[in-house]
Design goal:
alpha+beta, 2 domains, 6-stranded antiparallel β-sheet, 6-stranded mixed β-sheet, 7 helices, elongated
């Protein structure tokens, strides 16, 4: 309890950009740290360890900081919820407490991601991954477009109404890991009505150690001429910052289709409400389209 109290005192007294060594951890150094609006604790880890994870309002990441005249790769457990800092101190105490003869510190240093997964489970929230294959699907479509001479902007992860736009065409991307289901979700009644021609990519994946990851696609896109900074900006907006574990999960592309959104494609558009209008107080319509039986073009893209 004295360790937690020391952490709480550090949170209360520190100014931004300052670190305070914890005395209750003995010969296993740890610090309370404030950077900007974030506060938390840090411990030293190997320079080879690269982590960047988020869960609720907590961040668990490696970063180089200079403390006590030494620039070291630290593991930083932090939050920016100022009003919950006393409660957060309990979690921080669990990270920095070395345990008997340093056994707990040794476990964390050897397997920092295991500690993180266990802590998320302990906090009682379902460990739900944000399905990297959805972002991967957009990246595969992006790679297909630019390697086929299309100039497009990737805007889907930055709250765009479609995933890609060009001067004369918009593109929407839908991905699945279902083996036989060909259902897609349309998130609003006018998502497929942007004033330009629209095409839909439909990709089917399966997770595989021999597949392709988000990090793999980053390098392929850069080699094909895409701007690395713009790619990283989109990935950050999608929740996949550099070194996050989801970027390393690999998927095999089983199928890639291209659909034209034309008069034969089942959509909800304004003109179909022309006679009666959308009922009053109906502000949003989400619907599901079954792609089975609709015309499409099979696409081939090499991800090797």
């Amino acid at each position: 309890m004295r360790l937690v109290q020391e952490i709480r005192s550090g949170f209360a007294s520190l100014r931004s950009g300052r670190a305070l060594p914890l005395t209750e951890v003995g010969n296993y150094p740890a610090y309370v740290l404030r950077i900007g609006t974030s506060y938390g604790v840090v411990i030293e880890v190997s320079p080879d360890v690269k982590i960047n994870e988020r869960f609720s309002n907590v961040r668990y990441a490696t970063e180089e900081y200079e403390i006590d005249g030494r620039r070291i790769n630290f593991l930083y457990l932090s939050s920016d919820m100022e009003h919950l800092r006393n409660e957060f101190a309990n979690i921080c105490g669990a990270l920095v407490d070395p345990g008997e003869k340093g056994i707990e510190r040794e476990k964390i240093v050897k397997a920092p991601l295991k500690w993180w997964e266990q802590m998320k489970e302990l906090l009682g929230n379902r460990n739900v991954d944000s399905s990297p294959y959805n972002v991967l699907g957009e990246m595969v479509a992006y790679y297909y477009l630019i390697t086929n001479g299309k100039e497009v902007n990737w805007i889907g992860q930055i709250n765009g109404s479609v995933d890609f736009e060009s001067n004369d065409m918009d593109y929407e991307v839908k991905s699945t890991t279902m083996r036989y289901d060909s259902m897609i979700q349309i998130s609003s009644q006018f998502q497929l009505q942007a004033g330009k021609d629209i095409k839909i990519f439909f990709l089917r994946f399966e997770e595989s150690a021999h597949g392709t990851s988000i990090d793999d696609l980053v390098e392929m896109l850069v080699k094909a001429g895409a701007d690395r900074n713009k790619i990283e900006e989109s990935l950050i907006c999608g929740g996949y910052e550099k070194y996050s574990t989801g970027r390393n999960r690999k998927y095999k592309l089983l199928e890639m289709r291209l659909y034209d959104v034309n008069e034969r494609f089942p959509t909800i558009i304004r003109e179909r409400f022309a006679d009666y209008g959308i009922p009053q107080n109906v502000v949003k319509i989400n619907y599901t389209i079954d792609l089975d039986g609709l015309e499409y073009k099979d696409l081939t893209v090499s991800l090797i």
